[in-house]
C-alpha cells in the first residue's frame, strides 16, 4: 500500500434503530474489505455502557474477525487491563494466538474505558483499578505468557508460549514512558488527545530501552479519518460522531443518529467546546485534504505506522472512506 503501514481501529458503531448483530456484522464486513485493500491491522476497542458502541468484548470479537479473514493482523485497541485479571487476558489471547499464530495483537490500555460504576461492576472489587496497580498487573500478564523466574506461579494454558504481539496504548505520558522503559511498541490515541501526541511520543523515545521485543522505538498514532469525494460531504458524514461525542461528554450518551438529524442538532456552548477540542487535528475531507492532514501528522510525529478510525452512520460510507484512503491517499504518504 505504502511505505507507511496503515491500519484500522473500529468501534462497531451502533446506529439508532439498529441491533448489536447488525453492528458486529458491519465490523466483520469492514475487516474483510480492509484486508482486501491492503491495510496492515484491524483492531477493535473495549468500551462499556456506551449506547453508540457495540465493541465491549474484544477477545470474543477478535476470534470471530480472525476466523473471517486470512492475512490481516487482528487485535485489541485495546484491552483495558484494570477491568480484567491478568490470567484471564493471558488465557484469552493465548488461545487466540494458538488458533491464529502470528496474526494477533494485544493492545493494552490503563484506563477502564468506562465510568467508575461500570468498571467496578466488571472487576467486582476496587482492587486493581488505580494507576499504581497497572505496572504490576502488566508485569504479571507478560510473565504468564513468557514464564521465567519472575512469572506468577500459575500455568496459563493456552498462554505460556503463545504470546501475541503486545502494544501499550496511551493518551498521555504515563504509558508512553512505561512502554519506553519496557521496550514495547507504543500506540498513541491522537484521535481523542491530539494536544498530547507529540509530548507523549517524545517521552516514549527518550525513555526507550532496547528489549527482546524491540531494538528501537516503534510508535503508532491513531487518528480519526473521514474521507469522502468532497470536503463538504466528509464534514456532513462526520456529524453523527460529533453529536455522539457531545452527548457523551454531557452525560447523556445515545446511539448514532443519521447525518441529516445531526445537521440540525443544536449544540450548547459547552458541547461546542468539547467538539472543537475533540476533533482538532483529525483528517476529515476529500482525498486531497486527508492526504495533507495525514502527511502533516507523519511529519510532526515521525510515526512508524498510522491507525485510522472512522465513525460514521452508514457502513457504506465507512467502507468508502477506507477505500478512498487506500486508493488515493496511501501511495503518496512518506515517512521523513
Description of the molecule:
The chain is of the alpha/beta class. It has a single domain, classed as Luciferase-like domain (TIM Barrel), CATH 3.20.20.30. Helices cover 44% and strands 15% of the residues. The protein contains 13 helices and 9 strands. It has helices at residues 20-37, 58-68, 86-99, 116-123, 134-146, 173-182, 197-207, 231-237, 239-249, 259-263, 269-278, 287-301, 315-328; strands at residues 6-10, 41-44, 73-80, 104-109, 165-170, 186-188, 219-227, 283-285, 305-309. The chain has an 8-stranded parallel β-barrel with strand order 1-2-3-4-5-6-7-9, surrounded by 8 helices. Helix 1 runs parallel beside helix 13 (315-328) and helix 6 (173-182) packs parallel to helix 7. The protein starts with 5 loop residues before the first strand and ends in an 8-residue tail after the last helix. The relative contact order is 0.15.
